[in-house]
Design goal:
Length: 174
């Protein structure tokens, strides 16, 4: 992999947040991380019954947009789902170039709490590392502190490290 590109999906994704995420990802993966400047419209992925966006459809839309030897990570403020789950924080292609993460349930406001920018940025970094880990073929890790541990609640996300355990680390550096 030569680079990671970040792509806003839908409205309300702040450039400041993407720039901060890019810096964090560049540090961990030791590659350049570029923020694309035009948001992708996601209206096509809206499910009017669930009032959420279908993450697999967004992923399919991202695939042709990923370049050679580039990982493309979509970041959205929209609430994502897959049919079998109430919601997902994100979805990735296993050993493929694309992933998408949602800010929606990472925000303290979603849980009725005051907004905390640093909490949101750290959760976004962890969720992004997790989904990008899947694009390297990593599966869920049994080490609860590893970023590849499976998480379905922000409380669990908060106790993970924003880092890969030594075994998972091997999977991304080869
Ligand atoms: Zn996962
Ligand atoms: Zn691990």
């Amino acid at each position: 992999m030569k680079a990671i590109h970040l792509q806003a999906v839908g409205p309300d994704v702040s450039l400041e947040l993407l720039d901060e995420l890019a810096a964090g990802l560049a540090r961990t993966f030791q590659v350049s991380c570029h923020v694309r400047d035009t948001p992708l419209d996601a209206a096509f992925a809206f499910d009017p019954i669930r009032r959420q966006h279908y993450s697999t459809a967004i992923l399919q839309q991202l695939i042709p947009l990923a370049g050679e030897e580039t990982r493309l990570l979509g970041v959205t403020g929209l609430d994502l789902f897959v049919p079998v789950l109430t919601f997902v924080f994100g979805e990735a292609q296993l050993a493929g170039p694309c992933a998408v993460v949602s800010l929606h349930r990472l925000r303290e406001e979603f849980y009725g709490l005051p907004a905390r920018a640093e909490v949101l940025a750290l959760r976004l970094l962890k969720e992004s590392l997790h989904e990008l880990g899947h694009t390297f073929g990593l599966r869920h890790c049994r080490d609860w502190s590893c970023v590849m541990a499976s998480t379905h609640a922000v409380e669990r996300l908060d106790v993970k490290n924003a880092a890969f355990c030594p075994a998972c680390r091997k999977g991304i550096t080869g």
